[in-house]
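Why does residue order matter? Because the sequence determines the fold. Keep that principle in mind as you read this record.
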Amino acid sequence: MAAGTERAAAEYEAEPARFARLRARHGDAVPGGAGVAGPVPARRLERLRTEERPTWARPLPGGRDGWSRVAREVAGSGPPA
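Structure:
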């Protein structure tokens, strides 16, 4: 995720310069880019925050009951059931 965040930040920082080049070439018909510079990277960052990513986690033996037993033991909530 960190690499994706850095890439989104770099793209955000590059947008004003890109729009300035477009405006220099094509004139005032090209928008200033402020309306794009915020929402686009915000959507990219939101996708990075919410997208599914692979995990190295493995299920505990015993399923939900096994997980509950380990959680009780770790939390010190009494003897294992």
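The chain has four helices and no strands.
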